[in-house]
Each structure stands twice: as C-alpha cells, then as structure tokens.
C-alpha cells in the first residue's frame, strides 16, 4: 500500500485492504475529527503489544498514532480517514520482544525463589524493575505499553509507574501515578483506571518545583514497596516505569533520582547513545543495575510543544467526558467554607493573588500554603486529597479531580464539574497550574 494522506476535507476513502508481510507494520495517523476503524481479515496482528481480535471492527480513537504490527503476516481492512498510512518492514520489534523475554525469565526466577522460601535476599524475590528513559519522542510510552501488555498476556500483573507529568498516560497530566496491569492494554480504552495510585504534582513540568516532584516520587515508591511486601506475585512481576523526555541538566538529575527511588534494576535507554553512556557510568558502582541501549523506532511520531499542549488539554477533557466523549460530568456548587484549598510549595509560581492576604512567597519548596479561593481558579483543575489533615496532603494520594467553572466571590460559592455526582469525598483540595478551557 502506498503512503496516503486522506484527511483535510477530502471525502473519506472506501474501505481498503492492506496485506502485511511477516515482521512488518502499518503506521497510521488518525485525524482529530474523523473516525477510523480497523479489522483483521486474516493472520494475526497487534497494536503496541495488544492483539487485534480475530473478528469485528476495532474503532481507533481520534488523534491516535499507531502501528499495527504482525509477526507472521496479516491482512487488514481499514475504514475511514487517516492523515497518513504506510507500511514499514524496518522495526525494532524483534529487539523489543527479546528484551521482554529476558524480563520474563527474571520474573519466573523471582517467583521460583519466593516459592522455595528460606533465607532469601530481597533482590532474589524481586522481579525486574524496568525504567524506560530517552529524549522526547523516542517511543518510551509505547515501549512501556508493549512490555506491560506482553507480560500481562503471559499472566503477570506488572505495575505500571508513570512519572511523565507532561503527558499522563494513566490519568491527567501533572500526576505521578501507578497501577497494576492485569491484562493487555485495551486498544480503545487505554490503561485501566480501576485502581490507580495517584500523587498530584499539579504542573506539567518538574522545573516548577523539582523538590516536590522528588518528594512525591518517594511517597509513591514507599506505597508501592509496602504493597509489594505483602504480595509476592506482584513483586515478582515487577514494575515498568515511564519517564519524561527531559534528559539534560535537572531532567537528568531527576532520572538518576527516579532510578534510585524506585530501585530500578533495568534501565532501558531509547535512541540516545550519550544518555546511555552517562547513565551506565553513573550507576556502575551500584550492583545489579543493567543499563541497556535500545534502538528507537522510526515510526515514532514527533510532536511539537503546541501539539503537546493540546494533548494535555484533551487528556483533561477525557477525564471528565470520556475518551469517546460519551460521559457527562456533573456540575456542583460548594461554599467556600466547605472546602480548603492548598498549594504544595507555595513559592515560585503562585500568583500573589492566590496567597493568603499579606503573605510573601515562601522559600521552603515543599511547604504547604493555604490559598484563598479567587477568580484566578476558574478553568483550573483541583485535586481531591485523601489526606485527613492538611499536613498529610503531600504524603497522601488523591481521589480524583474537579474542574472549576465559576467562582462567585460575593456569594462565596465555587462551581465545578466532577466525573461523579454527589458531595466531594474530602474537603481538602490541591490547587494547580493545569487549565482547561471548555470549547
Ligand atoms: N512504530 C510506530 N508507528 C507509528 N506511531 C508510533 C510508533 N511508535 C510510537 N508511535 C506514536 O508516536 C508518538 C510518540 O511516541 P511515545 O509517546 O511512545 O514517545 P515518548 O518518548 O513516550 O514521548 P514523550 O517524550 O512525550 O514522553 C505516540 O503517539 C505513539 O503512539
């Protein structure tokens, strides 16, 4: 099939078939506003580690950039509009699946050691803790998805940890989160959202308050450590950790911090020799950390900062309205006196208007600051903390998010939308710089 560009006002092309040779993939970009569906006609194929069902059409969400890969050959049918679609035989998939096989063997070893019992070191019963690093658009999130889905297909329940606050593949951007992956990741619905453990940072870049970012990583790691200690199976299945594409200066320092905090024992470096060498040298004194260089796929689509900003907005919108725009959020009103809003590390970014009257920006980067509700909060996202007391906010995970749609200073009322009806599960809210404007 030749490369085609069919979006941009042109009539939708008729359904078309594509025959893929073994170990090749069809790369497809879906436009933001036109539907595409795909059907497997013959053979087997997968999208980032999740197999296409043998029968029936699979809707591909708008704005997706995907590769439909086949190990043994496949015939596909596409129906709808694409921005581009082209096949490629040059993929790093064999290298990726070999990496998966090595991780799988480590999981099996950890499980067998735990079953044997006796006096064992923690590292003997710990499965692989894989951290995937690389510059922006090197395919990190995609490789994480594949490693998780292939592991889940074999019955493991690895924990996915997402440290990429810029994009947010588990929940909205601005969060550090983790969730067990119990089955291959759904092509349409993405990462399952039943049991995520979410810590709210509240900004799309760590430079705003790197100390808070580090504290939240530590809190998440501590909670996961506790969960692993009581669950040999998930400890053997290990973790797959996705990171940000910022690999220089502070970004690099945070990567080293993440490796240490989550006790990663496998570092997969995508697409940058220099980063691989730097990390290898940095961890050489530490036992049992493998730093492995992996080829980047040429299929990974480059996204500029404007596109990323837009994607962030869509992720927030999806939280309230669903991926297929099929959910209806609930609008609600609370009195100012019924909630308390805090900012973690009130220093750097907080506008003076968001600080208590007469307060100066504080120096302690992790200090908690109570903020007055003001019209500045309109269009921003607030997180609902599980904390019982304000001083527990930084060490507590969050229950979910609300989006502020109006602030009535005179009547002292805040209007918001939430995914569920009813009262807020907590009165302690965390402010953020994340905004979303309803079109
Ligand atoms: N082989 C491929 N063919 C087509 N699209 C691909 C392929 N691999 C990845 N993509 C797409 O390219 C985009 C970028 O990939 P991905 O999100 O994995 O990169 P990343 O390194 O995690 O990016 P970031 O730096 O933002 O964290 C995604 O939309 C992904 O679906």
From TrEMBL:
This is Protein CLP1 homolog. Residues 134-322 form the Clp1 P-loop domain. It comes from the Eukaryota. GO terms for biological process: mRNA 3'-end processing. Required for endonucleolytic cleavage during polyadenylation-dependent pre-mRNA 3'-end formation. Residues 327-438 form the Clp1 C-terminal domain. Belongs to the Clp1 family. Clp1 subfamily. It comes from Urochloa decumbens. ATP binds at residues 25, 65, 137-142. Residues 20-110 form the Clp1 N-terminal domain. GO terms for molecular function: ATP binding.
């Amino acid at each position: 099939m030749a490369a085609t560009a069919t979006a941009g006002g042109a009539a939708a092309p008729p359904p078309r078939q594509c025959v893929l040779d073994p170990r090749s993939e069809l790369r497809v970009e879906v436009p933001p506003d036109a539907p595409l569906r795909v059907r497997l006609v013959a053979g087997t194929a997968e999208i980032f580690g999740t197999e296409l069902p043998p029968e029936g059409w699979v809707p591909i969400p708008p704005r997706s950039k995907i590769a439909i890969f086949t190990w043994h050959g496949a015939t596909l049918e596409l129906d709808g509009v694409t921005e581009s679609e082209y096949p490629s035989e040059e993929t790093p998939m064999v290298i990726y699946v070999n990496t998966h096989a090595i991780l799988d063997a480590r999981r099996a070893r950890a499980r067998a050691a735990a079953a044997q019992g006796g006096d064992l070191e923690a590292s003997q019963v710990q499965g692989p803790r894989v951290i995937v690093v690389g510059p922006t658009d090197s395919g990190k999130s995609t490789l994480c998805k594949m490693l998780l889905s292939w592991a889940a297909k074999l019955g493991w329940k690895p924990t996915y940890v997402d440290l990429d606050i810029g994009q947010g593949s588990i929940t909205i951007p601005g969060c550090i989160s983790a969730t067990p992956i119990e089955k291959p990741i759904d092509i349409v619905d993405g990462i399952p959202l039943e049991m995520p453990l979410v810590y709210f940072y509240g900004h799309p870049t760590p430079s705003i308050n790197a100390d808070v970012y580090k504290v939240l990583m530590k809190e998440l790691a501590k909670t996961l450590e506790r969960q692993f200690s009581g669950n040999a199976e998930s400890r053997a299945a290990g973790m797959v950790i996705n990171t940000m594409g910022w690999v220089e200066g502070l970004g690099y320092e945070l990567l080293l911090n993440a490796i240490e905090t989550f006790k990663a024992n496998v570092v997969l470096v995508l697409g940058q020799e220099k980063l691989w060498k730097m990390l290898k040298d940095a961890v050489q004194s530490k036992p049992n950390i493998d730093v492995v260089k992996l080829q980047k796929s040429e299929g990974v689509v480059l996204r500029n900062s404007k596109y990323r900003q837009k994607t962030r907005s869509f992720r927030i919108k999806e939280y309230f309205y669903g991926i297929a725009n099929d959910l209806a959020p609930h609008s609600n009103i609370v009195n100012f006196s019924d909630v308390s809003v805090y900012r973690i590390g009130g220093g750097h970014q907080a506008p003076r208007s968001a600080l208590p009257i007469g307060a100066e920006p504080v120096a302690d980067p992790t200090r908690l600051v109570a903020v007055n509700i003001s019209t500045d909060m309109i269009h921003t996202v607030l997180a609902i903390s599980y904390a019982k007391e304000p001083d527990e906010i930084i060490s507590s995970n969050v229950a979910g998010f609300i989006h502020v749609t109006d602030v009535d200073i005179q009547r002292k009322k805040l209007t918001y939308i939430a995914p569920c009806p009813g009262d807020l599960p907590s009165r302690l809210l965390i402010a953020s710089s994340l905004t979303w404007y309803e079109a």
